[in-house]
Amino acid sequence: MKSKAVANLSDRLAAVVGQQPQVRAAGENRATLEGGKIKLAGKEVSELSDVVILAAVQERTFYANPYTGEGAAPDCYSFDGVAPAPNAADPQHDNCAGCPMNEWGSNGRGKACKERIKMAFAPSGNLDNVAILRAPVTSTANYGTFQKDSAAHGYKVPFQHATTISASRHPKWGNVTQVQYSVGEALPDEVVMAALDRFDSTMSVLTQPYE
């Protein structure tokens, strides 16, 4: 017989559905991308299997001057892809869709405002071992496909199932690493509950304002 906490899981999941997808902190464990590989904890791999995506945001960043490193704060940024964050130093427009920095050609043939999916994930067997991955704009459509596939399997949020995150060279832009996501097996209710308990704090880290 299921406990009341597990029985209440569906209601709690429903409360966060609208925030998907919606960690930038000192000492964060970063997964980086290069040459069609994922580098995590000093190792390069083509895929990470049996991980749990705890939360994700569609981040946009604009730098008026060339980017100088991971610690540099953008002039304008957004964590929802809709409007600049309230404390953005120099908002370029009141909404992202109408922003001139979001237009093709605003930076050579590309966009001056860079779009990425930034996510927090962990091995399904150790949700405390969280890593952060920033997937480039060339992979954003892949994340959208993954969300639809997850929903087609009957899941409300990605942390109800295991996920395989894989990397490869982009077929059109070979110097760009693209990221893809595959829906795996359903996770036990206890693991989903543990992921749900971490949701608010994980989102807080993902949306930590740039200083």
How would you characterize the largest beta sheet?
9 strands, mixed
Strand proportion, as a percent range, falls in: 25-35%
Order of helices and strands: HHEEEEEEEHEEHH
How helical, in percent, are the residues?
10-25%
- The span between the termini is 49 Å
Helix/strand class? alpha+beta
For the CA atoms, what is the radius of gyration?
18 Å
Q: Specify the number of helices.
A: 5
Average pLDDT reading:
88
Enumerate the spans where pLDDT stays under 50 for 5 or more consecutive residues: 21-27
What is the global morphology? globular
User: How many beta-strand elements?
Assistant: 9
Structure report:
The chain is of the alpha+beta class and 211 residues long. The protein has helices at residues 4-7, 9-16, 140-152, 189-197, 199-206; strands spanning 29-34, 37-40, 43-45, 47-62, 76-78, 113-123, 131-135, 161-169, 177-186. Strands 1, 2, 3, 4, 5, 6, 7, 8 and 9 form a 9-stranded mixed beta sheet that branches.
Descriptive labels:
alpha+beta, 9-stranded mixed sheet, 9 strands, 20% helix, 5 helices, 211 residues, single chain
Q: Summed up, what is this model?
A:
By secondary structure, the chain is α+β, with helices and mostly antiparallel strands. It has five helices and nine strands.
Strand and helix map with partners:
Layout: H1 4-7, H2 9-16, E1 29-34, E2 37-40, E3 43-45, E4 47-62, E5 76-78, E6 113-123, E7 131-135, H3 140-152, E8 161-169, E9 177-186, H4 189-197, H5 199-206
Parallel strand pairs: 1-7
Antiparallel strand pairs: 1-2, 2-3, 4-5, 4-6, 4-8, 6-7, 8-9
